[in-house]
Amino acid sequence: MEKKYKRTLITTALPYANGPVHIGHLAGVYVPADIYARYLRLRGDDVIMIGGSDEHGVPITIKARREGVTPQDIVDRYHNIIKDSFKELGVSFDIYSRTTSDTHNATASEFFRRLYDKGEFVEKTSMQLYDEEAAQFLADRYVTGKCPHCGNENAYGDQCEVCGTSLSPDELIDPRSTITGSKPVLKETKHWYLPLDKWEPALRKWILEGHKEWRPNVYGQCKSWLDLGLQPRAVSRDLDWGIPVPVEGADGKVLYVWFDAPIGYISNTKELLPDTWQTYWKDPETRMIHFIGKDNIVFHCIVFPSMLMAYGDGFQLPDNVPANEFLNLEGDKISTSRNWAVWLHEYLVDFPGKQDVLRYVLTANAPETKDNDFTWRDFQARNNSELVAILGNFVNRAVVLTHKYFNGTVPAKGAMQEVDRNVFTELAEIKNSLSDNLDNFHFRDALKDAMNIARLGNKYLQETEPWKVAKADMDRTATILNVAVQLCANIAVAFEPFLPFMSGQLVKMLGMASIDWDMLGTDDIIAAGSAIGQPELLFEKIEDDVIEAQVKRLEDIKRQNQLDNWKVAPQAENVDFDTFKKCDIRVGTVIECVKVPKADKLLKFLIDDGMAKRTIVSGIAKYYNPEDLIGKQVCFIANFEPRKLRGILSEGMILSAENPDGSLVVIGPTAPVRPGAQVM
Which family does this protein fall into (predicted)? Predict the structure, then answer.
């Protein structure tokens, strides 16, 4: 039997404050967490949602060094951007704090010190790379060198971004410090490690036996780690930015960010509820849910629980960790370093008042069981064909007809017919499915359930046709429109977790004082005789030019990335002059040029080669308009063996050069020459 809890603590992964948040973060963590929190509040449950910025770690120091500012400057900037954009999107944190707060500093220090005093850490010395000029140990990202796998000269100490291989700094060939450029040396250093292997038996029992209901991706990743055998993990590192290790003789050492960050959930709860925070962390009647992305599963299911077990004192372990997979963008992995993302703060500027559209699309495409893809065309289609044409259309029809026939006053129901009763029978089934899906973190399916209420409404109006009935039977019309208005009220309740702005607008339009989950599925939310407001469009169509601008922005980013990362192709093997002379390269003048039918890439040229006219087919149609090439002079290989392309005999090959973005440029002389002139 499922345990009933008195309260729920929801935590959300702390976004890294070295940049803004993007749609991948939203789809993976923050939108589903907010849906769940809003749902529980509608049910009247005791729930708090905890969030905050992760403000320590190497990436922040690297960004600060690049910009010539302090790490504090970086985290202050991005914490505010993140916090403000979350608020504008309607993510309803009870607190959104930060790991540079005094409360967090004290909490994390005390946490480490308790484990230290209990003897829960293992001290180890090791040899690490050290920059003698900068007088500091080098974190992995502060070391670059030649990748031993692909030869990339600028691989990082933790990963080669060219071949994707995970590395350690000592594997790099000719390592160098990114701080001074000097060659680092190996130097002994001491750190503290949390022996995860000590907690492996408890973790096996808790996860593998006690939480088989977890999502397969979460359960499977945990089982994989446990089956491989857990190893001690460092909880400190040599760095000048972070929470100092609170032990004598630990100068220049800070808490490792992975150890520091999850304690932020505790410190932020303390900041919110200084007198009662322990109720949400130590009372067995509290259920804790971690909302995270799949890259954080191990930290939240193995590492943080090990920390809590090591600490003791009644800390409860999470009841569920509904981690999502990754969201891609236009078929490519989202990457902050490549600027391949849709940034929330920019979206809010580009699409004012359309917070709910983004929430809807990200939920509909939620990567709950596998990676999924966001495209701007799908965004537009879902807005226009679902939010506008289904949801907005039904509400608008119901409210407009109520104003037309009853002056905006909700009419009383008369005798109910089977078609009316069927509506509420189906509505009750939708509520059951919706509640079940929300309870089990199936938010994508839950959103479909909510939308089915609007589909039900549209179907009902089409079947009953009140605009025709009103010509002869106003009593029957009154019943139909009462049912329609009740469905609108049900929509306001069902969509509040998903689309809070639309729900609030609809609540106001219908004159509802408040809403709660118990209203959903009922046929008398709004009393007969109640006045409703004037109809307002809940959503508006998004035009092609708006979407084309976003697509072009991404195309420009991709093109710039290709330019920035372009490298000259390795030189081919040397050939002797006699071999080169076998290629007869000549100049010809383009007489005619047309596209090859049913071939997107091919152009058909008629070339004056000085002796005759020859046909050449070339794959450059994506980069040139045929008419622009007529009269131009081009270089071509004259003595290629003729071959057929799409049924056309091609008598040579036109020469072109490839740009970093893959586009082709036809090669020709810089001044006019006689057709047939040889290239020497």
Answer: Belongs to the class-I aminoacyl-tRNA synthetase family. MetG type 1 subfamily.
Antiparallel, parallel or unpaired: β 236-238 and 185-194:
unpaired
pLDDT in tens, 44-56: 999 999 999 999 9
Task: Retrieve residue 436's tokens.
Answer: 């079940």
Q: What Å distances lie between residue 185 and 65, 144, 652, CA to CA? A: 22, 13, 58
Long-range CB contacts for residues 445-452, cutoff 8 Å, separation at least 24:
446/35, 446/498, 447/360, 447/363, 447/364, 447/498, 448/364, 449/494, 450/491, 450/494, 450/495, 450/498, 451/386, 451/390, 451/391
Render pLDDT for 49-88 as a digit per residue (tens, 0 to 9).
999 999 998 889 989 998 999 999 999 999 999 999 999 9
Residue 301 assigned ligand-binding role: no
Please tell me whether 593 is known to bind a ligand: no
Alpha-carbon span 214 to 291, nearest angstrom: 13
Pairing relation of β-strands 46-53 and 95-98?
Answer: parallel
Distance between CA atoms of residues 523 and 528, nearest Å: 11
Q: Residue 495 forms beta bridges with which residues?
A: none
Q: Is 425 annotated as a binding residue?
A: no
Smallest Cα–Cα separation from 636: which of 601, 598, 602, 669? Answer: 669
How far is 519 from 525, CA to CA, in rounded Å? 6
CA distance 612 to 272: 86
Write out pLDDT tens, residues 410-425: 999 999 999 999 999 9
At which residue do the structure tokens 């049912």 appear?
A: 483
Reply yes or no on whether the pLDDT at 1 is more than 70.
no
Residue 241 near residue 60, CB atoms below 8 Å: yes
Nearest to 424 by CA among 506, 476, 489: 489
Q: What's the confidence (pLDDT) of residue 154?
A: 84
pLDDT in tens, 565-582: 777 778 888 989 888 889
Q: Is 147 annotated as a binding residue?
A: yes
Amino acid at 223: K
CB 158 within 8 A of CB 168: yes
- Taking every pair of Cα atoms in the chain, the longest distance, rounded to a whole number of angstroms, is 99
**What rounded mean pLDDT belongs to the chain?**
95
Query: Distance between CA 288 and CA 265 in Å, rounded?
Result: 11
